[in-house]
Amino acid sequence: MTNVQRITRKSERWFRRNQRDLPWRRTYDPYHVWVSEVMLQQTRMEVVLRYYERFLQRFPTLADFAAASSDDVTAAWSGLGYYRRARMLREGAIAVREQFGGALPGEVPALMTIPGIGRYTAGAIASIAYDRAAPIVDGNIARILARLFGRRANFWRRADDLVQAAGSARVFNQALMEIGALICKPKQPMCDRCPLRDECRAFASGRTELAPRKRAATVALRRRLYVVRDRRGRILMRRDTRGMFVLVGRSPLAVGQKRIGTFRHTIMNQRVTFEVFTASGQQPTANCSWIATKDLEKVPHPSFVRKALHLAGALLLAASTALADSRTYQIAADAKNTVEFHAEDTYDAFDGRTNKVSGAISADPLKPSASTVEITIDMASLNTGNTLRNREMRELYLETRQHPTSSFKSVSVAAPRGADSRWPHSRHVIVHRAHARLRHQRAKKYSRHRR
């Protein structure tokens, strides 16, 4: 058996045993595969998983997507960033409808005639959706090939040799994707877990570290955002030159301004610190509109808008009434109640989510600041969207076998402006800060490390 054959056999065997349960792998529908590949460009897997199924619920078929307006598509993409991807994906869907009768082709040359589809995406669709022997090379796979064959190797030719020898192009190409994402990392690769270490030239020579890529210098910026609301609780938003709705950066019409804090947001090589203020507003100017919070999902907006609206919030809970007269609400473990963990209050680093939460909200709609939230969370159910990271979080940092739960109590709680007598039963509850009673030292060390 040749070296190429050993690599393909071991990779395919490893993938069948260790592949992640990703939604597009359940059917391998070509449209679904295409959407997933575009979303995963420049975006982490755990972020994509939060948007993928919601996007397909809004546009379940390629025909639905091609018929959607540009605003509808961008609104559904809001939060994923790099919005040109969404525009090109829509242009590509229209081209498929007009040139291929609405069916995505399975051959690489035909796929590359579609706007927004290059050599890598064409190979990914052909191999993953149609199981065609098409090579793919992205950053993860190039890193694997550099370690297997040397940095001067022709990566596309090597990838083609491998996929031609594979038993299944679909399985093999995805195996390389998984190994690159989970094991063969840029720094500190997990060679002890790698199925290809016996065939790896870098491992044999003890030189697995790769030269770091040259990156543009980070630029630090500061910006102001105003969360301006009217008496109906609507938010004042401005439409920018890209067609995105953003919060106003200065508001001469706002009254009662109050600084509520800051958060950090990264855009390419820009590290932006946003300073957020709340205020009440008057009649908006011609280039601004009042947007109801329930309509945010319908308008395109960048992710930093939600960060500003959820400033310092880590928990979004939908509560059910327990005792309406006493304003006590019971939080039960069900799909409507979700707890998300992020490093500090920045929303830049996602550390997992779970629905296994119980507790109570004591609320007074006339005095929201006097409200309290107390919850207990099943930490062993915390899901980061990555099997290996789940194990690291649960076993190494949280030690969930010894400490399966943690309790949290709010420090401050705020209700939306215009909250009615049904609050919080009729709305989301935003817990601005919470203290955790963690009974194990390792979790505390992890918390400090993340900062």
What features would you describe in this structure?
With 451 residues, this protein is an alpha+beta fold. It has three domains: 3-205, Endonuclease III, domain 1 (Orthogonal Bundle); 219-307, Nucleoside Triphosphate Pyrophosphohydrolase (Alpha-Beta Complex); 315-450, Beta Barrel (Lipocalin), CATH 2.40.128. It contains 15 helices and 15 strands. A nine-stranded antiparallel β-sheet has the order 8-9-12-13-14-15-7-10-11, with no helix packed on it. The protein has a three-stranded mixed β-sheet with strand order 1-5-4, covered by helices on one side. The chain has a three-stranded antiparallel β-sheet with strand order 3-2-6, with no helix packed on it. α1 (3-18) packs across α10 and α9 packs across α11. The protein is globular. 31% of the residues are buried.
Number of helices: 15
Which CATH-level-2 architecture of the largest domain? Orthogonal Bundle
Beta fraction of the residues? 15-25%
Give the averaged pLDDT, no decimals.
78
Quaternary state reads: single chain
Cα gyration radius (Å)? 25 Å
Task: Please state the structural category.
Answer: alpha+beta
H/E element sequence? HHHHHHHHHHHHEEEEEEHEEEEEEEHEEH
Helical residues, percent: 25-40%
In total, the number of domains comes to 3
Count of extended strands: 15
Q: How are the strands ordered across the major sheet? A: 8-9-12-13-14-15-7-10-11
Estimate the global geometry from the Cα principal axes: globular
- What CATH calls the topology of the largest domain is Endonuclease III, domain 1
- Can you summarize the main beta sheet? 9 strands, antiparallel
